[in-house]
Amino acid sequence: MFELPKLLITGAQGQLGYELASLSTEGGFEVVSCASASLDICNEAAVSEVLDKHSPQYVINAAGRRPVSIDNRASDLDVNSKGPAILASACDERGMALIQISCAELFNGSAEIAYTEVMEPAPVSDYGQSLWKGEQAVRERAERHIILRTGWLFSARGRSFVRQLLESARVETEVCVADGLMGSPTSAVDLARVVVALIKQLDCDADNWGTYHYCAAEPISWFGFSEAVIAAARQYEDLKLERLVAVHQSELGHHLRPVFSELNCKKILRDFGIHQRSWRTGLMQVARTLYSYSE
User: Which of 13, 19, 130, 177 is the right S-S partner for 192, CB 3.0 to 4.6 Å?
Assistant: First the structure.
């Protein structure tokens, strides 16, 4: 009888990690979930101990740290650079495959067409730089790896943008939202589906290792996505919000994102047959999940 491989997921309490653990378990995989609090991927001894104890066939690194303000130093982002390097070496030594999650913030946002996997990254922030260093380390150290870049991740859990926006919309009449950003919101559930599909094909001897892009279809502005989030929520509750206010992202005190971060996803369709789904479907699913908690 065919047995599905064992997966080890780092960052299991994050947006993607949570959905990935849930979906993989439902799909019959044996799953080891490691929250960041229980496994520091920057600790080489701890990583070796966990991998030796559980012996997974695939390690999915969903651990990552996004700066919450422009004052974050690069040293705070070791989990995005040093962590993948340690995981890659440890996986390669044990013959394990590594799936490293990355994102579009590696690029500087100056392109006029969707970014492909062969276009050269040029990060504009310490966060982007840390992701790029992590990617390079994975390529150098792990022979069997997938680097999966995605768009603006959103979900019904944790401190996701959707939850934060709705929290503000319940108590404020005006909420400021970044203007001038164009990209691809991507549901964590959708991205988890893609990761599981990749593993199933890799485990059937698909030899398509390397870097891939996946984000939801229908690029939209950050402001437009924010409007869609509010519209979805108003199907379930009355919000105090009267108006979204478009401001430059620098006024919000967050790290600066590339103004354009659309990803070309033709390669993953060609090699794995994975089609993009609309972010609108993902948003409706997130809204149903959010409001089911209070029903």
Answer: 19
Asked if residue 266 lies in contact with residue 276, where contact means CB atoms within 8 angstroms, the answer is: no
Residue among 150, 113, 108 at smallest CA distance from 125:
108
pLDDT in tens, 127-161: 899 999 999 999 999 999 999 999 999 999 888 89
Q: Is 87 exposed, middle or buried (0-12, 13-18, 19+ CB in 10 A)?
A: buried
**pTM for the predicted model, two decimal places:** 0.94
Look at 177 and 294; give whichever has higher pLDDT.
177
Tell me the C-alpha distance between 66 and 287, whole Å: 23
What count of other Cβ atoms lies within 10 Å of the Cβ of residue 157? 17
Work out the mean pLDDT of the chain and round it to a whole number.
Answer: 92
Helix 126-141 crosses helix 78-94 at what angle (to 10 degrees)?
10
Instruction: Please provide the DSSP assignment of 173-209 as one string.
Output: SEEEEEES-EE-EEEHHHHHHHHHHHHHHHTTT----
- Look at strands 220-221 and 182-183 and give their pairing: antiparallel
